[in-house]
Every structure is written in structure tokens, then in C-alpha cells.
Amino acid sequence: MLLEGKNAVIYGGAGSIGGAVARAFAGEGAIVHLAGRTRESLEQVAEAIRSAGGGAETIQLDALDEAAVDEHAETVAASGGLDISFNLITHPYTHGVALVEMDADDFMAPVQTALRSMFVTARAAARHMIGQRSGVILAFGGPGDRSGPIRDYFLGGTQVAFDAIETLRRQFAVELGEHGIRVITLESGGVPESLDQGIEGRDAIVDLIEGQTLLGRGATLKEIGDAAAFAASDRAGAMTAATLNVSAGALID
Description:
This protein is α/β, with parallel strands linked by helices. It has seven helices and seven strands; from the N terminus they run βαβαβαβαβαβααβ. Helix 4 links the parallel strand 4 (84-87) and strand 5. It is globular.
């Protein structure tokens, strides 16, 4: 198995993408530590993993709370090492409003949440990985310098937030490489399965995602999980300061 004996912390582990990654990691032998703000939903994911024979722990935690994140990372590291960290929390958003009509707080909300949580969680993991001389920090972001405006749909600060994550990931990769720590972004043009059925304008969003791809469909949750498991494994041991394109061709390298 790709991740046998590894400890992986997944922030936002009860979400659709976080849960898919957790199941993929556990299926490859990792012990997954699911962190999030709602214990009940975390336990649902953990129980499904345990029922399939995997190992899962849960903790009610706000990924924006640096003291709580640091304390939890210390606990995980003490249990046998902290090998993988992946921040997949949900960001607030305001869509469908032109920038010139948007409040500054609404624009900044996803940017502040994305950047602070990525910084806090990656920093907590890195402090322990440095001593181990190994570890993988994963990010879920956008296309970085390939991003551009999307006509006919107003994304507010969302794309800016993903691009900010990518910029921060690059800096972590540069600073942590000498310690044997790999930092990789999974980039996606959107995952239709991750969208709540009741979200306003869901069909239009799905059409937007699928219309940009070369395959005529978005990536599936299972494909995202499987790609993350590969990136976190030793088979991707030479991969860092890089992006893993899981956009079904929406983002052309």
C-alpha cells in the first residue's frame, strides 16, 4: 500500500473532498486524523473508514485557531510522527456579484480564510516534519499564474483565494525543501460532485466547470483522492514545488 504506517492530518475531513481524500489515504494504509468544526459529520466519515478496515481518528477543531492546530499537531506527531498534512476546509464565498458592487468584507472573506488556514496548518506540520527530515504538505488550489477572468460568472474573491494558496505553497516549498519536506498543490478547475445539490445556480456552475475541460467532464471525488494519495506517497518522492493537474484538461500545461 502506498501510505502504509503514515499519519495524515486532513483539515476539513468531513467535507466532500476531504472525505474522499481521507478514504483514499486510509485505503492505502494511512491512519487519518480528521479535523473539523462538526464532530458528528467527522465521525460519519471516520466510521465509514473503520468499517472498511481503515484507521481514523477525529477531533473538533477550527483550522483558523493556531493554538488548537499546534496542539493537535503535537499530539499526532507524538503518536508516531506527522507525515502528511492537507488543508481542505471550506472557504466562505460570495458569488454572482460584480466586484464593483461587492463589499470589501465579502471579497476578503475567502482570501483571509484560505491564507490563514493554509499558513497555520502547514506551519504546524512543518515544525514536526523538519525534525523527521521528511513529510508532505498538500494544498488544494487554483492555476496560479495561469488564472484568468471567467466571463459571465462573478467569482468574487474565490479565485484570488486559490491563487493566494498557490503562492504560499511555493514559498513553503522553497523554504522546506532542504529539510526533506515536499509541498505540492492539487489544482482543479472544479469538482462537480463536491457541489451541494441545493446550492443556488448549481447547474450553471457544473456547466461552467465541464465546459472548460478537454474531457467533457470534471474530475470525480475518487480521482481527487487517488491523486492525493499518489502525491503523498514515496512514488512521488521527487515531486515538490509543483502542481498536480487534476482538472480533466481545464488547465492546460
